[in-house]
Design brief:
heterodimer; A: 1 helix; 7% helix; B: alpha/beta; seven-stranded mixed beta sheet; five-stranded parallel beta sheet
């Protein structure tokens, strides 16, 4: 859905649900996921519908992901770091968890 | 910068590092006020100058001169002596001017003598069928990706809506080598009649020539189609855009119908707001120095009503001069009259733009099972029916439907809910009012709250 313009600069690797993706210094978690072509970053707590980043400026809360074990972080406000572990969030409550 | 390194109090706390916040902090710091500026993003610039201090886009023509003008402002503030803290989220502000701040997982409560809220604007909700699908995004979101990360849409891209930003982004995408399948223009002919009376002022405004050139640039390269009914079609993600019954295959739909003040922090601090009939949004009640109804709190920039980035900087300066005069009457400050004159010049064409790009009712007041509240997945129909049952306002509506109670705290549904209730009850948005917001206005973890230092006396007051 998005391509990088010209010079890409220094890159680093993070993982999304265990799979490695390449990102660039200056990326946020949300921009890195969009560039990697990841369809959605969470499912909703009400209907379980998939959602992807919408505003990228910290107001819509659609890009909520788990970052290094901390849930519901706004992916568009978190700069990427080497080795960061991102998990997409399953919104609906699962019995027994 | 760690939270622990912050002083317990500052003369002036500026919240938001866009043009208003940058100009305010620079003006106050140069006059000798102990000034701190907080912004939750990785860098300053706000949305208009997003990524200005670390921009990956080498070809300056893509973003244009108006964007790069922000670099001077960022440098001015950096050299002013103001403490600039990025990655810092303000989650609370109250009438005693206590500011709750969180930086890298550590929270603090600071005391301010004066506060300038410069939290700017956000894009007006665009509630159409399917707007929650992956692949549907705001135009501003795509512009952020371009400015800060150098990312350009690569699939089949459709833009839809109205307003200056839509055309600016279209030009930027095209200059960057991106392709647009179509731009769906939701503008209304009736708007031209309403706008015409403000045309003489607009001809004198700096936006006239720029706007015309921009429209010409985009129209020469992109397919423009008029549209009134728009829907995003797909189940798991966007597949097509429906424009008045015509289907366009698409991977990305970028929506925009103007920007509105981001009222959350000011509202939570108790600042009084009113409905602005021309801009169709709530704006804070302010005096000529941008001081709000809460003593010591000013609101500058687009948060005070939409006027654009250059006007925002002038508003920031005026608000900061007032803060300096209140706290340090002897200090040397610029004459606010100069800033007021520049502000007046900037605001000259605004009425024309507001009327010309007034979003149509069908795209502000949805019907049927179109989602109004994205977080809690509440439909327009549910809100309309509940209003007809007797629910009088957005706060009561929360109790019925939970709309506005999800993580975004009404930012993406507040105006829609207010307008729907007003429409169903035959009253005005001013009468209906807005959500009553409360801190924390941004989510913080319990660990962050627990990191706030407490005194022995405070501990003894609650321990037995």
């Amino acid at each position: 859905m998005f391509k990088r313009l010209g010079d890409t600069g220094a890159t680093l690797t993070l993982s999304v649900d265990g799979k490695p993706i390449r990102a660039r210094i200056g990326d946020t978690v949300a921009s890195a996921m969009l560039h990697a072509g990841i369809d959605h970053c969470r499912t909703t707590p009400v209907s379980g519908a998939p959602r992807a980043p919408y505003c990228l400026m910290g107001v819509c809360f659609e890009c909520l992901v788990t970052v290094d074990g901390v849930g519901s972080r706004q992916g568009c406000l978190v700069p990427v770091r080497e080795g960061m572990k991102i998990e997409t969030q399953i919104g609906k409550r699962e019995a027994g968890r | 910068m760690n939270a622990a390194d912050l002083a317990p109090s500052y003369d002036l706390v500026v919240i938001g590092g866009g043009p208003a916040g940058l100009a305010a902090a620079a003006t106050a710091a140069r006059a000798g006020l102990a000034t701190v500026l907080f912004d939750e993003n990785p860098g300053v610039g706000g949305q208009i100058y997003r990524g200005i201090t670390a921009n990956p886009v080498r070809n300056r023509a893509i973003l244009g001169d108006d964007y790069w003008a922000g670099a001077a402002l960022a440098t001015e503030t950096k050299n002013s002596g103001a403490l600039i803290v990025t990655g810092a989220t303000v989650w609370s502000l109250d009438r005693t001017l206590t500011v709750g701040i969180s930086i890298a997982g550590q929270a603090r409560l600071l005391q301010a003598k004066r506060v300038i809220i410069a939290t700017g604007s956000l894009e007006r909700p665009f509630p159409i069928p399917g707007w929650t699908l992956p692949g549907v995004m705001t135009a501003g979101g795509a512009q952020t990706l371009l400015k800060a990360q150098g990312l350009v849409p690569s699939g089949r891209t459709v833009m839809a809506g109205s307003g200056p930003l839509l055309w600016l982004l279209a030009a930027q995408i095209l200059r960057a080598g991106g392709k647009l399948e179509a731009i769906v223009d939701t503008g209304s002919k009736a708007n031209w009649l309403r706008a015409a009376m403000y045309l003489p002022d607009f001809l004198l405004s700096p936006y006239f020539k720029k706007g015309l050139a921009l429209l010409r640039e985009v129209k020469a390269k992109a397919l423009i189609i008029p549209g009134r009914q728009i829907a995003a079609i797909g189940t798991d993600k966007l597949r097509e855009v429906d424009v008045d019954g015509r289907r366009l295959p698409a991977d990305l739909l970028l929506l925009h119908q103007g920007v509105v003040p981001n009222v959350n922090l000011a509202n939570a601090a108790g600042v009084a707001h009113r409905w602005d009939k021309r801009q169709l949004c709530f704006v804070p009640l302010l005096d000529q120095d941008f001081q709000s109804s809460v003593p010591g709190i000013a609101v500058a920039g687009d948060g005070a009503g939409i006027a654009g980035g250059t006007a925002a900087a002038e508003r920031g300066r005026i608000a900061a001069i007032a803060a300096v005069r209140a706290l340090k009457p002897g200090a040397n400050v610029p004459d606010p009259q100069t800033a007021r004159q520049r502000l007046q010049q900037e605001e000259l064409g605004r009425a024309f733009l507001d009327e010309l790009y007034r979003p149509i009712e069908a795209l502000r007041q949805p019907e049927g099972d179109t989602i109004a509240c994205r977080c809690e997945e509440v439909t327009a129909q549910q809100i309309r029916e509940t209003a007809r049952l007797g629910c009088e306002g957005p706060n009561q509506m929360k109790a019925f439907l939970r709309c506005g109670m999800g993580p975004c705290q009404g930012r993406l549904c507040g105006l829609t809910v207010t307008e729907l209730i007003a429409n169903e009850r035959g009253t005005t948005p001013d009468e209906v009012g807005y959500y009553r917001l409360r801190p924390p206005v941004k989510p913080i973890t319990l660990a962050e709250l627990a990191s706030i230092p407490i005194s022995e006396a405070e501990r003894k007051a609650v321990e037995r």
